[in-house]
Amino acid sequence: MSLQFTLAPEPEHEAREKGRLLFAGPVTFVKGVVAMSGLPPADRIEVCFAGRSNVGKSSLINALTGRKTLARASNTPGRTQEINYFALGDGRAQPEKYLVDLPGYGYAEAPVAIVAKWQALLKQYLSGRQTLRRAFVLVDTRHGVKSVDDEIMQLLDRSAVAFQVVLTKADKVSMAERLATIEQVKGALAKHPAAYPELVVTSSEKGDGIETLRAIVAGLE
């Protein structure tokens, strides 16, 4: 029986507050990783954010954390070549977590050898990180799921990593276009067993969906 994909509901007050407190606490850059041997100790739950180049990943991470330059956006697709680790929280109110910013994929301008290296690191990370609780796959509301997104979703299926789609830049399209994209994404996700059945629609500029996403991250154990 196939899953029924829906939009994530507005969080209840307690979940909203838990999310607010997690992201209102310390958020610190830990390190940029270029090989599996460089990963920090797997001593806490982590979530990762993946998406095509220029999908708005840096803007979303900055909106989540309330920090304008925590994740640095680049005008050059494929420039971010590292797995970037950020530590969330101070461990007092709730356990600390890692927020992991993965290299953008679907880049056309990077050298082939570098692309191959990134792809290999991405596959190793997704397949071998025991503390990874959920991957958030970002999809541009203007474009919907593309073939490169589907490739990452297949990798997550094979790695048995639960992933949840986050639609970005929802403010850039009309409501009719947004609804059409949501239906397209639902159809694309139907064939992916690792897909979480709730979509999050966001706008980093308007703040839409940010509290919902914070609550989801904070609620993962």
Automatic annotation (TrEMBL):
Pfam name, any one: MMR_HSR1
Cofactor: Mg(2+)
Keyword S-adenosyl-L-methionine (UniProt): no
UniProt keywords, alphabetically: Cell cycle, Cell division, GTP-binding, Magnesium, Metal-binding, Nucleotide-binding, Septation
Gene Ontology BP terms: division septum assembly
Domain of life: Bacteria
Xref: Gene3D superfamilies: P-loop containing nucleotide triphosphate hydrolases
GO MF annotation, one: metal ion binding
Keyword RNA-binding: no
Gene Ontology cellular component annotations, sorted alphabetically: cytosol
Domain EngB-type G: 43-221
SUPFAM superfamilies, per database record: P-loop containing nucleoside triphosphate hydrolases (SSF52540)
PANTHER family per the UniProt record, alphabetical: ENGB-TYPE G DOMAIN-CONTAINING PROTEIN (PTHR11649:SF13), MSS1/TRME-RELATED GTP-BINDING PROTEIN (PTHR11649)
Function comment: Necessary for normal cell division and for the maintenance of normal septation.
Matches recorded under HAMAP family: GTPase_EngB
Family per record: Belongs to the TRAFAC class TrmE-Era-EngA-EngB-Septin-like GTPase superfamily. EngB GTPase family.
Annotated protein name in UniProt: Probable GTP-binding protein EngB
Species whose genome carries this gene: Paragemmobacter straminiformis
Phylogenetic placement of the source organism: Bacteria, Pseudomonadati, Pseudomonadota, Alphaproteobacteria, Rhodobacterales
